[in-house]
Amino acid sequence: MRQEVVLAMLAKEPSHGYQLRARLREALGPLGDAMNAGHIYVTLTRLEKAGLVAVEVPADGADRSDRKAYGLTPDGQQRVAEWIAEVSWPKPDLAEFHLKLVAAASAGLADPLTVVDTQRRELLRRLRDAQRAAMAESARSNAALLLEGIVLRLQADLRWLEACEQNWTHRRSGS
Amino acid sequence: MSETADPPVLHARALRKEYGKGEGLVRAVDGVDLDIRAGETVAIMGPSGCGKSTLLHLLGGLDRPSGGEVLLNGRRIDNLSEKALARMRRTDVSYVFQSFHLMEELTAVENVELSALLAGCSPRTARRRAEELLDQLGLAGRSKFLPSALSGGQRQRVAVARALSNEPLVVLADEPTGNLDSAATLDVLQLFDELHEYGQTLVIVTHDARIAATADRMFSMRDGVLIDETRLTGGTNGKLGALVGLED
After folding, report:
1. Model confidence over B159-181: pLDDT tens digits?
2. Looking at A67, A85, A103, which one is the last position of a domain?
């Protein structure tokens, strides 16, 4: 996860580490379980060194790390604004799978259709897991929306596998 | 152990269905072996024209095979008389269709009780059972509605309630989410999940990966043949985060 994400989650108000984690968990639902708490604290320390967040000392003056509240510095606010405006999108690595099929077929390493079937099994299992998680969430929650994104992407991948299968079936019967 | 001890609810061997002859011969189902055990949800997936609907019709006695055999609870159904077949379709198997096939002039509860009435149930018992089913499927307040007053997802729920009203050994569903939008699809997936929990045996043919993914086992069908079997239970728990870039 990029450090800008952690930074942006602090934009609403200065927060303790545990509040930040709770906010991420609320937004991610069951996917947040995978989040490494240590990673967040490491990121906060890095952001502090980079001058993007500043520690706000609690009123009672205690300096225990779990009592530290982090807030954005002006540089941090600037970075968040840039990040929000930035256009980025995760790149699905379709070329690798595509080349796997090409290599398997041309060198006779494996039947491309078997490779497609194996891949489909894995994607269907993931789809099943994502759907089960989606069904367990209330319909309008943040987590349900994220899970819907996963379900839709997996559907798109499965449709592409169908196209791969048809194409390679056609090539095999044509040759 | 139990896998070998329990006889399958549905058993098909070397099942074939051909149409036409000579040059025009179409092998819609071309040698299918299939065992479905009680309480299982099995999906059969494939592109349109692969023979999956024909296979479903053979399994449920809606159509007769050109060869091979089908056993329902250990009893052969491929060679039953028309009369015995009609009785079996009323009591032992139920269908859920893509287009719901509800009677538009009957209310939800009347649609649901119809098959129980046809199976010889008393009107009072049929009505009580229909009301119970609609209640269980979350349609209690809509039992007096006509299908036209219900959403797509609700209509499919009524169709499923009707399918359950004769307590069938197996429910056969043909593209049950075919006419539904994304939200209504999730509704039907949830419903099938509930049926599965309840122990209902389900066979679903579909080209919708979402509904196939809810099954215990999935078969891919091409040109009349089952080409691949996938067991979907015991999947990839805990790795969901990897799908959104939260984990490696």
Report:
1. 989 988 888 999 999 998 887 77
2. A85
- Do the Cβ atoms of A29 and A141 come closer than 8 Å? yes
- What are the start-end ranges of the H helices in chain A? 3-9, 17-28, 37-49, 74-85, 94-106, 112-136, 142-174
Q: Which residues on adjacent β-strands are paired with residue A53?
A: A72
Q: Which of A128, A139, A169 sits opposite B213 (nearest CB)?
A: A128
pLDDT in tens, B100-145: 789 999 999 999 998 888 878 899 999 999 999 899 888 888 999 9
- Pair (A78, A100) in one structural domain: no
State whether A81 and A109 are in the same domain. Answer: no
Domain identity same for A99 and A169: yes
- Across the interface, whether the CB atoms of A131 and B210 are under 8 A apart is answered yes
pLDDT at B104: 93
User: Which tens digit of pLDDT belongs to each residue from B44-102?
Assistant: 998 888 899 999 999 999 999 999 999 999 999 998 999 998 888 888 999 888 887 89
Q: What is the maximal distance between C-alpha atoms in chain B?
A: 61
- From A85, A104, A139, give the residue that closes a domain: A85
On whether any CB of chain A is under 8 Å from the CB of B54, the answer is no
Partner residue opposite A155 with nearest CB, options B209, B227, B235: B209
- To probe the interface with B, which of A111, A127, A135, A155 has the most B CB atoms within 10 Å? A127
Q: pTM of the prediction?
A: 0.80
Q: Do B241 and A31 touch (CB under 8 A)?
A: yes
The amino acid sitting at A75 is D
Instruction: Measure CB to CB from residue B236 to each of A28, A126, A131 and give the nearest one.
Output: A126
What burial letters (b/e) apply to B180-199, b meaning 16+ CB within 10 Å? beeebbbbbbbbbeebbeee
Q: Which residues does chain A have within 8 Å of residue B189's beta carbon, measured at their own beta carbons? A: 131, 135
Both A78 and A104 in one domain: the answer is no
Chain A contact for B240, CB < 8 A? yes
Tell me, yes or no, whether A16 and A71 share the same domain: yes
Domain span including residue A101:
94-174
| Chain B nearest CA to A76, separation (Å) | 22
pLDDT tens, A84-106? 999 888 777 889 999 999 999 99
Domain CATH for A58:
1.10.10.10
Q: Is the ipTM of this complex over 0.85?
A: no
**Number of folded domains that form chain A:** 2
Helix (H, G, I), strand (E, B) or coil at B192: helix
